[in-house]
Amino acid sequence: MDQKCSLDDFRPVRLILPGLLSFYGLPIPYSLDELSAGEAPSVVDGLMFELHTLPVDGKTVPDGDGVNVYVNTTDVRESSLVPHEVHMAAVERNLARAQRNYAMADALHKQITDAGYKVLNINDEEILARKYRIRLRGIDAPENQQPYGKEAKDELVKIVDGKCLKIQVFDEDQYGRFVGDVYCNGLFVQKRMLKKGLAWHYTAYDKRPQFEKWEKEARAKGIGLWALPNPEMPWEWRRKHRQNRF
User: Fold this and answer.
1) 7 domain residue, yes or no
2) Catalytic residue among 93, 130, 135, 192
């Protein structure tokens, strides 16, 4: 069962239970694609921290292996990280809006967003949230301009749109994105992308045997990008296009 995460306490419990369990990091008893015994990636040394996100806006998904997410600053970890000037800007913005000084409110909101935060309206409640750019750990999807790039992005949007995610962060890349394992209502997102033939196992940075297994299964079935006679690895595509710019 794959339900959108909601903060509306008046919906039937059966509709919001998966999202609530996922939000608080609790196991979900059923899922479209539960991790079978022995396939769940182990939590290895190097785990930096864990994020529990607000519902994801699918329109902000950049490609097939990245997501943009927001985390409520009332979260225990986040609350201690918010800069004082961001807190003050959020308070002053509320006062400006109450006084109908919308020009001032807009200027303060720009100050907040420039600092990597945003005031979101969720179910008529304004929430100060921090933005994170996430790179899915261990996979590399076709670039948007490559064959199956659009399909990879569309599949990722379908998985995460409107959902709360659990993200285990292990690293930060050269572009300032946090690299992590992403879970959505009990679904391991990288597993879905690999098994659908919409991503490569990124072996240069990840050696997990489960990922190799899932890629091989998709190759054997000839699904997704593996239906192509000679699919080009996205890291090779990026290298060629970087060279062509000079």
Assistant:
1) no
2) 135
Written as six digits, the tokens of 122 are 């969720």
Among the listed residues 143, 155, 192, 215, the single catalytic one is 143
> What does residue 156 show for φ and ψ, rounded to 5 degrees?
-65, -40
177 is catalytic: yes
Residue 14 designated active-site: no
Q: Which of 155, 177, 192, 215 is catalytic?
A: 177
- Determine whether 239 is an active site residue: no
Quick check: is 192 in a domain?
yes
pTM: 0.80
In a domain, 25, yes or no: yes
**Number of domains, the chain:** 1
**52-109 tens-digit pLDDT:** 999 999 999 999 999 999 999 999 899 999 999 999 999 999 999 999 999 999 999 9
CATH number, domain with residue 180: 2.40.50.90
Domain range enclosing 69: 13-33+43-244
Give percent of the chain with pLDDT exceeding 70: 80
- 238: nearest Cα among 142, 131, 128: 142
Closest CA to 70 of 189, 167, 170, 203: 167
